[in-house]
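Is iron/sulfur cluster placement plausible here? Inputs below.
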Amino acid sequence: MFQGGVKLIDFKEISKEKVIENLQPPEKVVIPLSQHTGIPSNPVVKKGDTVLKGQLIGENAGFISSAIHSSISGTVTGIEKCPLPGGKTSPAVVIENDGKDTSIEPTKRNWQELKTEEIVSIIRESGIVGMGGAAFPSAVKLTIPPGKKAECVLLNGCECEPFLTADYRVMKEEADRVVEGLIIISRTLKAKKSYIGIESNKRDLVPLLRDTINKFGADTPIEIKVLLEKYPQGSEKHLIKSVLNKEVPSGGLPIDVGCVVFNVQTALAVRDAVCEGHPLIERVLTVTGLVRNPKNLRVRIGTPVSKVLEYCGAEIKEGMKIILGGPMMGIQVYTTDTPVIKGTSGILVLPEEDLPENIQPCIRCGKCVEVCPMRLVPADLGKYAENQKWDRCNEFNVSDCIECGCCSYICPAKRPLVDLFKWAKAEIRKVEVK
Ligand code: SF4
Ligand code: SF4
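Reply from A.M.:
I modeled the complex. Tokens:
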């Protein structure tokens, strides 16, 4: 088990038993060309073009980039600026739905007959990115740097953020596809062993996952690890510590300790791309919080948040907060025109937040230090950031902060520590690129 972290009330009972429903594609999708870590994709369509479901509309623009595909069939009405979570924007391909849902001809394959490079190439061309939130291109993760070796693969089924239950439902309803995806990833990396990490609030999945693993008779052993509930266990570094008792060094990556971590839905997307020829054009997300009908929904990428909320009976009033993701690491949206993207794990509607005047000076209680899973001293870092002492922030490793929010959550003075650290990191980056 990792040091620090917090035990949170999980609020998962709101949607845990809700079977995944398919949301009908909207009349119009807005598909951002920058919805992954790395360089935005280059558009390969223009206004007036007709496109099919699954057709390439944005191509990889570099090693760390991703392909983007149309999630519906219809006509491109333009390439426009669209809102992203956190007040950012991106150029996006806007497509008007023709209502036919005509798809490209998918290529079915027997993955066991494919070479490693072919599998990685299919994953790259299918636009698969990490679906836990970070949206890091999966083909890059599968390209191991010289001198490193992937000894094991961890399937991240923790879903440790409160409220979210989409990954739980995917494991329950699609166990076959998830496990097959894990086997494909493992075999591609030539890993000796794989693990499925879940928290104890998903313990009921163990018999199903075990039966599924046995059914595949994988030649690479897969072990299921049931972990005590503790946030942020779903962070790669902390999952590795909990499952393997290995520490990823400061500034390092999981591969530095011989490990590669994939999210549950990413494994499923890998399997669907490799075996069925389906690019990544939809995902399952949880819609929860102050909505009349909380749900786990399969949603086409590019669907406006407003359409999803409408389907779930949300009445958005002034001051309410809409968060894409969970309450701890999710990012607020300021307009419901924001589209669902590949990394959208949930849509959470919360009541009005505390007003800024409730923020008090630090009382040096030390609680933030106790809970920081990265062993930082948030109280001091917060003070340096407030005073714009970026060199001090850098010296005291603000770049190691994973923005988990444990410090802000526990702070009795309600200090906006994570916001301060995001600001500090952005300022340090500005200096580094000069
Ligand atoms: S947000 Fe950063 S500083 Fe705060 S607890 Fe998490 S890792 Fe530590
Ligand atoms: S938890 Fe808040 S009040 Fe306590 S030491 Fe940290 S910043 Fe200060």
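Short version: Residues 362-368, 378-379, 382, 410-413, 415 surround iron/sulfur cluster (ligand 2) (CB under 6 Å).
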